[in-house]
Amino acid sequence: MDSRFRNWGFARIVRLAGGIGIGIYAIYTSQYIYLMLASVLLIQAAYNLSCCGASGCGSDSGTYKQNTLYKDQIKNYNPEKK
C-alpha cells in the first residue's frame, strides 16, 4: 500500500491528471467509451504501471558498476588468409 504513494514521477502524475480529466470529460459529454481510457490511465497511475510493466522501462544506473571500454583495449580483427 505504501508503494502506491511513493515514487511519484512526472509520467505518473501526467497519467493521473489525464485519467481524471478524461473521466470528467466522459461523464460531462455522456461519451462513456472515454471512461475506459480514463480507467486505464487511473489504474496505471495508481499501480505505477506503464506499457512496459511495473517500472520496466526505467533505468537505474546507480545499482551496477559500469565498465568503461577504451580504444587501446580493443584489438583489430585480422582474419587469417588461406
Please provide a brief summary of the model.
This protein is an all-alpha fold.
How many beta-strand segments?
0
Rounded mean pLDDT score: 78
Order of helices and strands: HH
| Helical run tally | 2
Task: Give the end-to-end Cα distance, rounded to a whole number of Å.
Answer: 67 Å
Helix content: 40-55%
Give the radius of gyration: 23 Å
Structural class: mainly alpha
**CA-based shape:** elongated
Profile the largest sheet.
none
**β content, as a range?**
under 5%
Unreliable stretches (pLDDT < 50, length at least 5) are none
Please describe the topology of this protein.
Blueprint: H1 10-29, H2 33-47
Helix pairs in contact: 1-2
Organism: bioreactor metagenome
Keywords: Membrane, Transmembrane, Transmembrane helix
Protein name: DUF2892 domain-containing protein
Explain what this protein looks like in three dimensions:
It is built from 2 helices and no strands. The longest helix is centred in the N-terminal third of the chain and has 20 residues, at 10-29. It has 82 residues and is an all-alpha fold. The chain has helices at 10-29, 33-47. The chain has a domain at 1-51. Helix 1 packs antiparallel against helix 2. Keywords: Membrane, Transmembrane, Transmembrane helix. The chain crosses the membrane at residues 12-28.
Question: Which features would summarize this protein structure in a list?
Answer:
82 residues, 2 helices, membrane, mainly alpha, 43% helix, transmembrane, transmembrane helix
